[in-house]
Design a protein that fits this description.
Elements lengths: L1 E9 L10 H15 L3 E6 L10 H19 L4 E8 L3 H15 L4 E5 L12 H10 L5 E4 L2 H9 L7 E3 L24 E5 L8 H11 L6 E5 L5 H10 L6 E3 L5 H9 L3 E4 L8 H8 L4 E4 L14 E4 L4 H13 L1 H18 L2 H13 L1 H7 L1
Parallel strand pairs: 1-2, 1-3, 3-4, 4-5, 5-6, 7-8, 7-10, 8-9, 10-11, 11-12
Protein backbone atom coordinates (compact mmCIF):
# COMPACT_ATOMS: atom_id res chain seq x y z
CA UNK A 1 0.00 0.00 0.00
CA UNK A 2 1.19 3.51 -0.82
CA UNK A 3 -0.20 6.17 1.50
CA UNK A 4 0.16 8.84 -1.17
CA UNK A 5 -2.13 7.32 -3.81
CA UNK A 6 -5.93 7.33 -3.75
CA UNK A 7 -8.88 6.82 -6.08
CA UNK A 8 -11.82 9.25 -6.13
CA UNK A 9 -15.21 8.26 -7.52
CA UNK A 10 -16.49 11.78 -8.07
CA UNK A 11 -16.87 14.60 -10.57
CA UNK A 12 -14.01 15.49 -12.89
CA UNK A 13 -14.79 19.12 -13.70
CA UNK A 14 -13.18 22.56 -13.65
CA UNK A 15 -13.71 24.85 -10.68
CA UNK A 16 -15.26 27.46 -13.00
CA UNK A 17 -18.04 24.96 -13.78
CA UNK A 18 -18.55 23.43 -10.33
CA UNK A 19 -22.33 23.06 -10.54
CA UNK A 20 -23.70 20.73 -7.92
CA UNK A 21 -22.49 19.34 -4.62
CA UNK A 22 -20.32 16.48 -5.85
CA UNK A 23 -18.43 18.79 -8.21
CA UNK A 24 -17.69 21.31 -5.46
CA UNK A 25 -16.67 18.61 -2.98
CA UNK A 26 -14.46 16.85 -5.53
CA UNK A 27 -12.64 20.04 -6.53
CA UNK A 28 -11.88 20.96 -2.92
CA UNK A 29 -10.78 17.40 -2.13
CA UNK A 30 -8.39 17.44 -5.09
CA UNK A 31 -7.07 20.83 -3.96
CA UNK A 32 -6.38 19.47 -0.47
CA UNK A 33 -4.68 16.39 -1.93
CA UNK A 34 -2.45 18.49 -4.16
CA UNK A 35 -1.37 20.71 -1.26
CA UNK A 36 -0.51 17.66 0.87
CA UNK A 37 1.36 15.65 -1.75
CA UNK A 38 -1.37 13.05 -2.39
CA UNK A 39 -1.98 11.69 -5.90
CA UNK A 40 -5.53 10.93 -6.99
CA UNK A 41 -6.94 8.95 -9.91
CA UNK A 42 -10.53 9.97 -10.73
CA UNK A 43 -13.38 7.72 -11.83
CA UNK A 44 -15.57 10.43 -13.34
CA UNK A 45 -19.25 10.53 -12.32
CA UNK A 46 -20.11 13.98 -13.72
CA UNK A 47 -23.15 14.24 -15.94
CA UNK A 48 -25.32 16.87 -17.55
CA UNK A 49 -28.05 18.13 -15.22
CA UNK A 50 -31.73 17.41 -15.96
CA UNK A 51 -30.90 14.74 -18.57
CA UNK A 52 -32.73 11.46 -17.89
CA UNK A 53 -30.95 8.41 -19.22
CA UNK A 54 -32.62 5.13 -20.06
CA UNK A 55 -32.03 2.00 -17.98
CA UNK A 56 -29.63 0.66 -20.60
CA UNK A 57 -27.69 3.94 -20.76
CA UNK A 58 -27.31 3.89 -16.97
CA UNK A 59 -26.26 0.25 -17.07
CA UNK A 60 -23.65 0.93 -19.75
CA UNK A 61 -22.23 3.91 -17.82
CA UNK A 62 -22.09 1.87 -14.62
CA UNK A 63 -20.24 -0.99 -16.33
CA UNK A 64 -17.71 1.47 -17.77
CA UNK A 65 -17.03 2.87 -14.29
CA UNK A 66 -16.69 -0.59 -12.75
CA UNK A 67 -14.19 -1.62 -15.42
CA UNK A 68 -12.36 1.70 -15.01
CA UNK A 69 -11.99 1.07 -11.28
CA UNK A 70 -10.57 -2.40 -11.92
CA UNK A 71 -8.18 -1.05 -14.57
CA UNK A 72 -7.00 1.89 -12.45
CA UNK A 73 -6.50 -0.29 -9.37
CA UNK A 74 -3.90 -2.34 -11.25
CA UNK A 75 -1.63 0.64 -11.85
CA UNK A 76 -0.22 0.77 -8.34
CA UNK A 77 -0.99 0.07 -4.68
CA UNK A 78 -3.57 2.56 -3.45
CA UNK A 79 -4.34 3.56 0.13
CA UNK A 80 -8.06 3.50 -0.62
CA UNK A 81 -11.06 4.81 -2.51
CA UNK A 82 -13.38 7.75 -1.76
CA UNK A 83 -16.85 7.27 -3.26
CA UNK A 84 -19.50 9.99 -3.58
CA UNK A 85 -22.96 8.50 -4.08
CA UNK A 86 -26.42 9.72 -4.86
CA UNK A 87 -29.71 8.00 -4.13
CA UNK A 88 -31.70 5.80 -6.52
CA UNK A 89 -29.75 4.16 -9.32
CA UNK A 90 -26.57 6.00 -8.34
CA UNK A 91 -26.65 4.42 -4.89
CA UNK A 92 -26.74 0.86 -6.21
CA UNK A 93 -23.99 1.57 -8.75
CA UNK A 94 -21.69 2.99 -6.07
CA UNK A 95 -22.44 0.06 -3.74
CA UNK A 96 -21.27 -2.26 -6.52
CA UNK A 97 -18.10 -0.17 -6.82
CA UNK A 98 -17.64 -0.57 -3.06
CA UNK A 99 -18.02 -4.33 -3.48
CA UNK A 100 -15.35 -4.27 -6.20
CA UNK A 101 -13.11 -2.40 -3.74
CA UNK A 102 -13.68 -5.17 -1.19
CA UNK A 103 -12.74 -7.83 -3.74
CA UNK A 104 -9.61 -5.85 -4.69
CA UNK A 105 -8.70 -5.41 -0.99
CA UNK A 106 -9.04 -1.62 -1.30
CA UNK A 107 -10.48 0.23 1.73
CA UNK A 108 -13.39 2.48 0.75
CA UNK A 109 -15.23 5.47 2.22
CA UNK A 110 -18.84 5.89 1.13
CA UNK A 111 -20.31 9.40 1.14
CA UNK A 112 -24.04 9.78 0.29
CA UNK A 113 -24.73 13.35 -0.84
CA UNK A 114 -28.39 13.08 -1.89
CA UNK A 115 -30.94 14.13 0.72
CA UNK A 116 -33.64 12.02 -0.92
CA UNK A 117 -31.86 9.01 0.60
CA UNK A 118 -33.63 9.92 3.86
CA UNK A 119 -36.85 8.60 2.27
CA UNK A 120 -35.52 5.11 3.04
CA UNK A 121 -37.12 5.60 6.47
CA UNK A 122 -40.53 5.57 4.77
CA UNK A 123 -39.90 2.30 2.96
CA UNK A 124 -40.98 -1.15 4.07
CA UNK A 125 -39.18 -3.04 6.83
CA UNK A 126 -37.63 -5.40 4.30
CA UNK A 127 -36.39 -2.51 2.12
CA UNK A 128 -34.73 -0.86 5.13
CA UNK A 129 -33.08 -4.15 6.12
CA UNK A 130 -31.87 -4.68 2.53
CA UNK A 131 -30.37 -1.19 2.29
CA UNK A 132 -28.82 -1.61 5.73
CA UNK A 133 -27.13 -4.81 4.51
CA UNK A 134 -25.79 -3.02 1.44
CA UNK A 135 -24.35 -0.27 3.61
CA UNK A 136 -22.17 -2.88 5.30
CA UNK A 137 -20.15 -3.30 2.10
CA UNK A 138 -18.09 -0.06 2.29
CA UNK A 139 -15.45 -0.04 5.02
CA UNK A 140 -16.54 3.40 6.25
CA UNK A 141 -19.60 5.61 5.94
CA UNK A 142 -18.90 9.35 6.05
CA UNK A 143 -21.78 11.36 7.53
CA UNK A 144 -22.17 15.06 6.81
CA UNK A 145 -23.73 15.64 10.20
CA UNK A 146 -25.56 14.09 13.15
CA UNK A 147 -28.80 13.56 11.23
CA UNK A 148 -26.90 11.36 8.79
CA UNK A 149 -25.25 9.52 11.67
CA UNK A 150 -28.69 8.84 13.16
CA UNK A 151 -30.00 7.60 9.79
CA UNK A 152 -27.10 5.21 9.30
CA UNK A 153 -27.46 3.90 12.86
CA UNK A 154 -31.19 3.35 12.27
CA UNK A 155 -30.17 1.19 9.30
CA UNK A 156 -27.85 -0.89 11.47
CA UNK A 157 -24.45 0.68 10.82
CA UNK A 158 -21.91 0.08 13.57
CA UNK A 159 -20.35 3.07 15.36
CA UNK A 160 -16.79 2.08 14.42
CA UNK A 161 -17.63 2.33 10.71
CA UNK A 162 -19.10 5.84 11.02
CA UNK A 163 -17.39 9.20 11.13
CA UNK A 164 -18.50 12.79 10.56
CA UNK A 165 -17.05 14.89 7.75
CA UNK A 166 -19.02 18.08 7.18
CA UNK A 167 -19.18 19.40 3.62
CA UNK A 168 -16.50 21.88 2.64
CA UNK A 169 -15.59 24.56 0.07
CA UNK A 170 -12.41 25.09 -1.89
CA UNK A 171 -9.74 27.50 -0.63
CA UNK A 172 -10.53 29.88 -3.49
CA UNK A 173 -13.93 30.83 -2.05
CA UNK A 174 -13.76 34.14 -0.18
CA UNK A 175 -14.64 33.61 3.48
CA UNK A 176 -15.70 36.51 5.69
CA UNK A 177 -14.42 36.93 9.22
CA UNK A 178 -16.57 39.95 10.12
CA UNK A 179 -20.40 39.96 10.27
CA UNK A 180 -22.66 41.85 7.90
CA UNK A 181 -23.30 45.51 8.57
CA UNK A 182 -26.59 47.07 7.51
CA UNK A 183 -27.31 50.55 6.24
CA UNK A 184 -30.04 52.35 8.16
CA UNK A 185 -33.48 52.13 6.47
CA UNK A 186 -32.07 50.03 3.60
CA UNK A 187 -34.33 47.21 2.36
CA UNK A 188 -33.46 43.65 3.35
CA UNK A 189 -31.98 41.75 0.42
CA UNK A 190 -32.90 38.05 0.18
CA UNK A 191 -31.14 35.58 -2.13
CA UNK A 192 -31.81 32.05 -3.36
CA UNK A 193 -29.01 29.99 -4.93
CA UNK A 194 -29.68 26.52 -6.31
CA UNK A 195 -31.21 24.45 -9.06
CA UNK A 196 -34.37 26.06 -10.39
CA UNK A 197 -36.65 23.13 -9.68
CA UNK A 198 -39.86 22.71 -7.70
CA UNK A 199 -38.12 20.58 -5.07
CA UNK A 200 -36.00 23.56 -3.98
CA UNK A 201 -39.17 25.26 -2.69
CA UNK A 202 -39.52 27.80 -5.50
CA UNK A 203 -43.32 27.84 -5.35
CA UNK A 204 -43.17 28.56 -1.63
CA UNK A 205 -40.79 31.47 -2.31
CA UNK A 206 -43.14 32.89 -4.95
CA UNK A 207 -46.06 32.57 -2.51
CA UNK A 208 -44.06 34.44 0.15
CA UNK A 209 -43.06 37.22 -2.25
CA UNK A 210 -46.69 37.59 -3.35
CA UNK A 211 -47.85 38.10 0.26
CA UNK A 212 -44.99 40.39 1.33
CA UNK A 213 -44.29 42.43 -1.81
CA UNK A 214 -46.70 45.28 -1.08
CA UNK A 215 -46.14 45.20 2.69
CA UNK A 216 -42.36 45.68 2.89
CA UNK A 217 -39.58 47.24 0.75
CA UNK A 218 -37.34 44.15 0.38
CA UNK A 219 -35.54 42.70 -2.65
CA UNK A 220 -35.16 39.06 -3.73
CA UNK A 221 -32.58 37.58 -6.12
CA UNK A 222 -32.81 34.14 -7.72
CA UNK A 223 -29.52 32.56 -8.83
CA UNK A 224 -29.46 29.24 -10.66
CA UNK A 225 -30.55 27.32 -13.71
CA UNK A 226 -33.07 24.59 -14.36
CA UNK A 227 -36.53 23.79 -15.72
CA UNK A 228 -38.32 26.48 -13.69
CA UNK A 229 -36.00 29.36 -14.62
CA UNK A 230 -38.21 30.74 -17.40
CA UNK A 231 -41.34 30.09 -15.35
CA UNK A 232 -40.02 32.25 -12.50
CA UNK A 233 -38.99 34.96 -14.98
CA UNK A 234 -42.48 34.92 -16.47
CA UNK A 235 -44.14 35.18 -13.03
CA UNK A 236 -41.91 38.11 -12.05
CA UNK A 237 -42.69 39.93 -15.31
CA UNK A 238 -46.45 39.33 -15.21
CA UNK A 239 -46.63 40.31 -11.52
CA UNK A 240 -44.74 43.54 -12.26
CA UNK A 241 -42.10 42.72 -9.64
CA UNK A 242 -39.09 43.39 -11.89
CA UNK A 243 -37.93 46.48 -9.99
CA UNK A 244 -37.23 44.48 -6.82
CA UNK A 245 -37.21 40.78 -7.78
CA UNK A 246 -34.24 39.71 -9.90
CA UNK A 247 -33.79 36.40 -11.74
CA UNK A 248 -30.12 36.05 -12.67
CA UNK A 249 -29.83 32.53 -14.00
CA UNK A 250 -26.51 30.79 -13.45
CA UNK A 251 -23.57 32.96 -12.35
CA UNK A 252 -19.84 32.33 -12.40
CA UNK A 253 -18.22 31.70 -9.02
CA UNK A 254 -16.91 35.28 -8.93
CA UNK A 255 -20.32 36.74 -9.82
CA UNK A 256 -22.01 34.48 -7.25
CA UNK A 257 -19.68 35.69 -4.50
CA UNK A 258 -20.51 39.30 -5.44
CA UNK A 259 -24.24 38.52 -5.30
CA UNK A 260 -23.83 36.97 -1.84
CA UNK A 261 -21.79 39.94 -0.65
CA UNK A 262 -24.59 42.32 -1.61
CA UNK A 263 -27.30 40.19 0.04
CA UNK A 264 -28.47 39.93 3.66
CA UNK A 265 -30.43 36.67 4.01
CA UNK A 266 -30.09 33.33 2.22
CA UNK A 267 -33.33 31.43 1.48
CA UNK A 268 -33.59 27.72 0.58
CA UNK A 269 -36.90 26.03 1.51
CA UNK A 270 -35.99 22.67 -0.08
CA UNK A 271 -38.04 19.49 0.19
CA UNK A 272 -34.87 17.38 0.62
CA UNK A 273 -31.13 18.03 0.99
CA UNK A 274 -28.01 16.09 1.92
CA UNK A 275 -26.39 19.33 2.97
CA UNK A 276 -26.72 22.25 0.53
CA UNK A 277 -23.39 23.63 -0.68
CA UNK A 278 -25.05 27.00 -1.30
CA UNK A 279 -25.88 27.22 2.42
CA UNK A 280 -22.18 26.81 3.27
CA UNK A 281 -21.31 29.53 0.73
CA UNK A 282 -23.93 31.80 2.29
CA UNK A 283 -22.69 31.18 5.83
CA UNK A 284 -19.06 31.87 4.87
CA UNK A 285 -20.39 35.08 3.26
CA UNK A 286 -21.90 36.10 6.60
CA UNK A 287 -25.53 35.53 5.66
CA UNK A 288 -28.09 34.20 8.14
CA UNK A 289 -30.30 31.64 6.40
CA UNK A 290 -33.90 30.56 6.19
CA UNK A 291 -33.90 26.87 5.27
CA UNK A 292 -36.09 23.82 5.55
CA UNK A 293 -35.16 21.48 8.37
CA UNK A 294 -34.19 18.58 6.10
CA UNK A 295 -31.14 16.34 5.73
CA UNK A 296 -28.11 17.63 7.60
CA UNK A 297 -29.13 21.30 7.55
CA UNK A 298 -29.81 21.57 11.30
CA UNK A 299 -26.23 20.52 12.09
CA UNK A 300 -25.02 23.98 11.04
CA UNK A 301 -28.15 26.10 10.77
CA UNK A 302 -29.14 26.64 14.40
CA UNK A 303 -32.67 27.95 14.76
CA UNK A 304 -32.82 31.61 15.90
CA UNK A 305 -29.04 31.58 16.40
CA UNK A 306 -27.64 31.91 12.88
CA UNK A 307 -30.84 31.58 10.91
CA UNK A 308 -34.34 30.14 10.99
CA UNK A 309 -35.37 26.54 10.37
CA UNK A 310 -38.80 25.99 8.83
CA UNK A 311 -40.79 22.90 7.85
CA UNK A 312 -40.60 21.97 4.14
CA UNK A 313 -43.56 22.76 1.86
CA UNK A 314 -44.82 25.49 4.21
CA UNK A 315 -45.30 28.92 2.65
CA UNK A 316 -46.66 30.52 5.82
CA UNK A 317 -43.60 29.60 7.89
CA UNK A 318 -41.38 31.03 5.14
CA UNK A 319 -43.42 34.25 5.16
CA UNK A 320 -43.09 34.49 8.94
CA UNK A 321 -39.31 33.96 8.79
CA UNK A 322 -38.77 36.54 6.05
CA UNK A 323 -40.95 39.04 7.87
CA UNK A 324 -39.01 38.44 11.11
CA UNK A 325 -35.79 39.65 9.49
CA UNK A 326 -37.53 42.55 7.74
CA UNK A 327 -38.96 43.75 11.05
CA UNK A 328 -35.81 42.95 13.09
CA UNK A 329 -32.75 44.04 11.08
CA UNK A 330 -30.58 43.95 14.23
CA UNK A 331 -31.07 40.16 14.23
CA UNK A 332 -29.37 40.00 10.85
CA UNK A 333 -26.09 41.33 12.26
CA UNK A 334 -26.33 39.08 15.33
CA UNK A 335 -27.09 35.96 13.28
CA UNK A 336 -24.43 36.90 10.71
CA UNK A 337 -21.73 36.69 13.37
CA UNK A 338 -22.89 33.20 14.36
CA UNK A 339 -23.21 32.09 10.73
CA UNK A 340 -19.52 32.87 10.14
CA UNK A 341 -18.52 31.23 13.42
CA UNK A 342 -20.33 27.97 12.64
CA UNK A 343 -19.10 27.94 9.04
CA UNK A 344 -15.46 28.11 10.13
CA UNK A 345 -16.03 25.56 12.89
CA UNK A 346 -17.93 22.93 10.86
CA UNK A 347 -16.97 23.44 7.23
CA UNK A 348 -13.24 24.06 7.12
CA UNK A 349 -11.94 22.11 4.11
CA UNK A 350 -8.60 21.15 5.66
CA UNK A 351 -10.18 19.74 8.82
CA UNK A 352 -12.80 17.67 7.00
CA UNK A 353 -10.59 16.45 4.15
CA UNK A 354 -7.91 15.44 6.65
CA UNK A 355 -10.41 13.22 8.46
CA UNK A 356 -11.28 11.46 5.21
CA UNK A 357 -7.72 10.78 4.09
CA UNK A 358 -6.62 9.74 7.59
CA UNK A 359 -9.30 7.04 7.75
CA UNK A 360 -7.83 5.45 4.62
CA UNK A 361 -4.16 6.00 5.50
CA UNK A 362 -4.69 4.48 8.96
CA UNK A 363 -6.97 1.68 7.79
CA UNK A 364 -4.53 -1.08 8.79
CA UNK A 365 -4.33 0.40 12.27
CA UNK A 366 -8.15 0.50 12.38
CA UNK A 367 -8.47 -3.19 11.43
CA UNK A 368 -5.96 -4.23 14.08
CA UNK A 369 -7.87 -2.25 16.69
CA UNK A 370 -11.20 -3.82 15.72
Amino acid sequence: MNNKYFILVGAKINESDSRGGVGTLSIALLDYADRHGYKIEIIDTSKKPFVKNSFFQNLKTSLVRILSLIRVSRKKKYAGVIIFSGAGWGFYEKIILSLVCRLLNLPSIFFIVDGWFFSVRDKSFFSRVWIGKLLKIPNFLAASGQNWVNLFKDLGTEDERLFVAHYWLSHSFSKRVKPKSLHKNAPVNFIFIGWMIKEKGLQEIINAIDVLYNKHPFTFTFVGEGPMLNTIRKIVKESKWSSRIFVKGWLSNHEKEKALASSDIFVLPSYAEGFPMSLIEAMFSGLPAICSDVGGVSDSLLDRINGILIPPRNSQELINAMEFYIRNPAAIVKHSFKAIEVAHKNHDSDINCKVIFNHLINFDMYTLKN
